[in-house]
Amino acid sequence: MAANIYEIPETVEQLFDEVENNGGVYSYRIIDYTDGMNMDNNESLRYFIECVGITSDLIEEDYGSQITLVHPNYKQCIVIDSGGLGDFYSHGFDCSTTEN
Fold first, then answer.
1. Is the CB of residue 75 less than 8 Å from the CB of residue 3?
2. pLDDT classification of 52: cutoffs 50, 70, 90
3. Distance, CA of 18 to CA of 25 (rounded, Å)
4. How far, in Å, CA of 84 to CA of 77, rounded?
5. How far is CA 35 from each of CA 4, 17, 41, rounded to the nearest angstrom?
6. What sign does the CA torsion over 53, 57, 63, 66 have?
7. Three-state SS string across the chain, please?
8. Which of 49, 28, 100 is nearest to 71 (CA)?
9. Which domains does the chain have, with CATH numbers?
10. What does the angle CA 45 – CA 59 – CA 7 come to, to the nearest 5 degrees?
């Protein structure tokens, strides 16, 4: 079985910086075949939020598989959409900026 892949930011600030520095669009992914990682889009976004350390005070809107983040140190908001990458163990997170 393939190795688990966590291509995600280490901090909220890194997330904002990477999206901003890449023209306002950036994608992350988690591929993890270990027990308990069989998730739908809503569950995978919750897991992403936990892994990155996104606190509830930064979440402006929450639609289950999409959230909008605000941060006091950044002018832009970040919209994160979670989606599958072909199975319930492979998750993608498409990020884009929007005006605050």
1. no
2. very high
3. 9
4. 23
5. 12, 32, 17
6. negative
7. CCCCEEECCCCHHHHHHHHHHCCCEEEEEEECCCCCCCCCHHHHHHHHHHHHCCCHHHEEEECCCEEEECCCCCCEEEEEEEEECCCCCEEEEEEEEEEC
8. 100
9. 5-99 (3.30.310)
10. 40
The answer, as to whether pTM is greater than 0.90, is: yes
Structure tokens at 58: 């930064």
CA-wise closest residue to 30 among 49, 17, 13: 49
| Mean pLDDT of all residues in 5-15 | 97
Is the separation of the CB atoms in 71 and 57 below 8 Å? no
Tokens coding 57: 């005070």
CA distance 20 to 30: 21
2 pLDDT above the threshold of 70: no
